[in-house]
Each structure stands twice: as structure tokens, then as C-alpha cells.
Design brief:
It contains four helices and 41 strands. The protein has about 575 residues and is mainly beta. Strands 18-20-22-25-23-21 form a six-stranded parallel β-barrel.
């Protein structure tokens, strides 16, 4: 078995110089290798030394062997037929905390679950070269006690399921402790998908959960590929498959994690906060990221540069019970930026849209959140035929609770209502472009505002609109223009319109009207403050001028109007 270590040294291209004598261990019995049972003795190598370069300092060969715990030294054959599970479990059992268990290239079939309570690292020769094929449950690393802040690094492996959405591929549980800490786990260059028959037959296998993290604070997932079962369409998920489930964890980083053909890309629950998604994709899923049953505090989530192609929701942060005024556990200080959302076609019984090719009430982003930002996002539904997102009550962004959020630089194409904040309040919504043949004109050109919102939206029909209960323009010297809309503090009734006329008339009109046409007769009142007067013309008043009378005129409909006359102050 020691020869496997020498093979590894040779594969690294390093010359091997052995000093003194070396008595190789006797081969293990064939029955022991087949069963993967027991520990193979390395023999007496205490007097053997090795150098890997000319002139290098000799090191004991036994030290070199123990840098990696090679699973083949414990009976694993990696032939894709033999059950290598017991041999792998034996290698992990021998490894000390922080050591690395090495899987040379090959296909390792594993018949039953492997569970360890030690923080050990696992390494293969690459996700396409070293494949672990699990017939049942996958691998579990459970560090239930404080191990001094050790980090388990799992890299360059493929976890393949040979089951029908029943088991979890990789379960990682760490010890929860407060204060700064290193990453609990680092996952790098891993693949999770069903067993590949390699004969062109459609793959029918998948994990129920590819990765499950529990109390895994500060973990990092980098360059991870997750793929569910092949389907003729994205309809009718056999089971509630999940790409990555995260529970009660803080500060997990997902960098270049790609998830395909699962029902839920990421499921986040419990007291989880501070997670960051960067440069990944979720395609052919029902929900991209689902924040479900969070426990306070669960704040500070960041999602940047991710592509979502989903049937129901791209990002869904569930709301708590009650209205926006009494929601006690609304997630806060979240950020979504530079993301693309595509509504995916849905076929079969789950397609309940008007056209029968999608799901009703699709939302790219549905969140119950406060003090958060959503910026630089593009939302597209490019479904053909008689697809009607407006009749299906689709939305681009839906703030389902919360307050004081900023939504800016949003492009929403053929997705029904671009932004809906009716269930939220006091938000700022700016630079939103809503386009599409059937955009929701009845809701303000692609926008439904909550109380206290400030908005600036462009729609195909209405152009740019700036709306607010109060708008204040100011310069360094102080306010220069303030617009108040509404007869009452919170009730918008009247509006003032400034409009241009035909070019040959060359005049600008000012018109008062009612927002809902409930008050057809609207006067224009020019009101001064205190003892001030309303003045017209080019002059600089030097003294206070008293009103000396009024002039009565009739408007175009015959109504009598009065203009006040003041003393000449030229």
C-alpha cells in the first residue's frame, strides 16, 4: 500500500532518492482488500529517508507518507464496482484533525453512509477524475465539539447520486461558538449530480439536497456545480429537491456556485445572516433563493452578479404575519445588485397562467425587508404566444412588507407590474423603466406605490413620472421649490399640471385637476405667507403694498373669477 504514495510522488514529477534500507510491507490479503476492512501495516520504514530534489534535505519516508491519508492504502479499489465505503471510512478514522484524506483518480462506489465527527479534509484529483458514487446517503462531517477553530477543506471531487431524490450528498455540521472564527468548511471545485451512465441514456438520478450546512459559520463555497435530474421540461418536480440548504449559519460565501434543474436553488433558514452570493447562476428552478422561517436576527444578505431563470420567484424572502406596521421580524440591510432575472417557461399541471405556458403571480424579487437596496437589475419575460403577464398578476419587484428601501436602475420588460410597494412604505423608487406590450398601465405605468413612497418611473405609455406626497428641491442657500400634493396629510386629492401647447401658439399652461376626477371644479390659488402679497411683473418691491381692490373676470365657461389689485410699487 505504501507504493501508492510513491506513485503519487512520481506523478508529481519529482525524483525519489531512498536512503538506507526499506522493507516493503507485505500485501494485504485479497479478502481484506475486497472488504476494505482493517488497517494495512506499512512495515518497518523507520530507517528509510527520501528527498524529492537533488540536494534536498532528507526526510523520513514515513513522514512523507502521512502528509496524505491515501484511501487506497486502506483497501479502496476505485474500480466503480467494489464497495469502497468501509475502506474510505477506515482512512478517515485514521486521519488526525486537520489532516487530508486523499482520493486518487477513479470511481469509488459507496454502499452506505459515511459519518465522521472529526474535522478532516478531503481531496481528489479533480471533479472529473475522482468520482464518489453513493448508492444511499452521502458523506457527513459533524464537528459537534469545539476543535480549536480547524477548517475542513473539501476539494476536487464529484459526489454522484445513484438514487431518486432521496438522500443528501454532503452534510456539514460545525460547532456553534461566538466571536471571530475561521471558516468552518471550504468547498472548492466540486460537482453534485446524478450518476452518469456514460452510455447516452437519460440520467434519472439526483440528490434531494446536494449540500446541507448547519452551524457552518464563515464557510466558503467556490466553483461548485450542482445538477438535478434530466427532465423533458421543468414541470413536475418529483421531490422538493434543493441545491444548497443553509441553516443557523453566519457569513457563508457562495462564489461561482451554479445550480441547475432543482426545485429550490438555495434554501436559507433559522438564524442565518450575512451570506453573500457572487457570480453564480440558478437555472430551471422553481425558486432561486428562498429565505424561509428565518429567526431574528437574520440580516445583511448580499446578492451580486447572479443570473436567475426560474418559474415562480427568483429571490423570495418570506414575510412574517401582520401588516407592515407590526411586522416584528423583517430582515434588514440587504442588498441585491447587478442581477438578471428571466421568467422561465412552465409546462404541464403547474402552468396556471392565462396562456398556459407559465405560472401566475411570478415575481423576480419578492421580499419582506427594510433599509435595503435593490439596484441595477434587469427583469425579462420573453414568453411567446398569447402570454399576458398583466392578466397573470405578474410583478418584477414586490416588496411584501418592510419600509425605507431604495429601488433604483431597474429595467422590467414584459413582466407585468414593474415595481409593487403597496405592502411597504416610505420607499424611494427611481429610474425604473417598464416596457412591454401588456404593461400594467392601470397601476401608474408599471408602479404601485405604498404610503410615503417617492418614485420616478418611465413607462411605454406615460413617459417619465415623478410622484411623491412631498418633493423638495434645494440648493446650498436653502430650499427653492417645494411641491405638496394632497388636501390632507396622507391623502392625495389635487394635482397641478404644467404642460406645453402646439409650437405655433408658444405658451405654457398651468392646470389644476383632481387625481381621480372626484372633484371636477378645481381653482388655482396663489397664496402668500404672512403679510406677503401675490405679485406679477418685473419689479422689485421696496415697501409693503396694500390690496386696493379686485378685478372680476369670467373664465371660458362663464364662471366669475377675481384678480386682486395692489398699489403700484414700481
Amino acid at each position: 500500500m505504501a507504493t501508492h504514495h510513491i506513485d503519487k510522488l512520481l506523478s508529481e514529477g519529482s525524483p525519489i532518492i531512498v536512503h538506507d534500507t526499506f522493507r516493503a510491507p507485505a500485501p494485504a490479503p485479497a479478502s481484506a482488500r475486497a472488504a476494505g476492512a482493517g488497517t494495512v501495516e506499512l512495515g518497518d520504514i523507520g530507517n528509510a529517508y527520501v528527498t524529492t530534489t537533488e540536494g534536498g534535505a532528507p526526510r523520513p519516508l514515513v513522514e512523507r507518507f502521512h502528509e496524505y491519508i491515501n484511501v487506497k492504502d486502506y483497501g479502496a479499489l476505485a474500480d466503480g464496482v467494489t464497495d469502497d465505503g468501509p475502506a474510505i471510512a477506515a482512512a478517515i478514522e485514521v486521519a488526525g484533525i486537520g489532516q487530508t484524506v486523499y482520493f486518487p483518480s477513479g470511481v469509488y462506489q459507496i454502499g452506505s453512509a459515511i459519518v465522521t465527527e472529526k474535522v478532516v479534509s478531503l481531496k481528489g484529483d479533480g471533479a472529473r477524475s475522482t468520482e464518489l458514487v453513493f448508492l444511499q446517503e452521502g458523506l457527513t462531517i459533524r464537528a459537534t465539539t469545539d476543535t480549536g477553530g480547524d477548517t475542513a477543506v473539501i476539494s476536487d471531487l464529484a459526489f454522484l447520486a445513484k438514487s431518486m431524490g432521496t438522500y443528501t450528498g454532503l452534510t456539514l455540521e460545525s460547532h456553534d461558538k461566538p466571536g471571530p472564527k475561521p471558516p468552518a468548511f471550504i468547498l472548492r471545485n466540486l460537482k453534485f449530480h446524478g450518476f452518469d451512465t456514460r452510455f447516452g441514456v437519460q440520467n434519472k438520478y439526483e440528490w434531494k439536497r446536494s449540500v446541507c450546512l448547519d452551524n457552518a459559520d464563515k464557510s466558503v463555497l467556490h466553483s461548485i456545480f450542482i445538477y438535478g435530474k434530466e427532465r423533458s421540461s421543468v414541470d413536475n418536480y418529483d421531490t422538493n429537491t434543493i441545491g444548497v440548504e443553509v441553516n443557523n449559519s453566519t457569513g457563508v460565501v457562495f462564489d461561482k456556485v451554479d445550480v441547475y434543474r432543482v426545485k429550490t436553488g438555495f434554501l436559507v433558514s433559522g438564524q442565518s445572516e450575512g451570506h453573500s452570493w457572487v457570480n453564480g447562476v440558478v437555472v430551471a428552478a422553481n425558486v432561486g433563493v428562498h429565505f424561509h422561517e428565518l429567526v431574528t436576527p437574520s440580516n445583511n444578505f448580499s446578492i451580486r452578479g447572479v443570473h436567475y431563470s426560474c418559474e415562480k420567484y427568483g429571490i423570495w424572502m418570506e414575510s412574517w404575519s401582520g401588516g407592515y406596521g407590526d411586522r416584528s421580524f423583517v430582515s434588514k440591510f440587504n442588498n441585491i445588485s447587478s442581477c438578471f432575472f428571466l421568467q422561465r417557461k412552465c409546462e404541464g399541471s403547474r402552468a396556471d397562467s392565462t396562456s398556459g405556458i407559465a405560472m401566475r403571480e411570478y415575481c423576480a424579487i419578492r421580499m419582506s425587508t427594510s433599509y435595503s437596496t435593490i439596484s441595477d437589475v434587469a427583469i425579462l419575460s420573453n414568453l411567446s404566444g398569447d402570454f399576458r403577464p398583466d392578466l397573470d398578476h405578474n410583478r418584477g419587484i414586490y416588496l411584501d412588507g418592510g419600509k425605507y428601501n431604495i429601488i433604483s436602475s431597474v429595467l422590467c420588460v414584459q413582466s407585468g407590474l414593474a415595481v409593487d410597494t403597496l405592502s411597504s412604505k416610505n420607499n424611494v423608487v427611481t429610474n425604473v423603466v417598464s416596457e412591454g406590450e401588456y404593461e400594467s398601465i392601470a397601476s401608474g405605468g408599471g408602479l404601485a406605490k405604498g404610503p410615503g413612497d417617492i418614485s420616478m418611473v418611465r413607462s411605454k405609455e406615460k413617459g417619465w413620472e415623478l410622484t411623491s406626497r412631498n418633493v423638495l428641491f434645494s440648493v446650498d442657500a436653502g430650499p427653492v421649490l417645494k411641491l405638496l400634493n394632497g388636501a390632507g396629510k396622507d391623502q392625495a386629492v389635487n394635482q397641478l399640471e404644467v404642460f406645453s401647447t402646439d409650437a405655433d401658439k408658444r405658451w405654457v399652461g398651468i392646470r389644476a385637476s383632481s387625481v381621480d376626477d372626484a372633484y371636477p371644479d378645481q381653482d388655482i390659488a396663489l397664496l402668500s405667507s404672512g403679510a406677503g402679497h401675490v405679485r406679477f411683473g418685473r419689479f422689485s418691491p421696496t415697501t409693503s403694498a396694500a390690496i386696493t381692490g379686485s378685478i372680476e373676470i369670467k373664465d371660458m365657461s362663464g364662471r366669475v373669477r377675481k384678480l386682486a389689485v395692489v398699489e403700484d410699487v414700481h
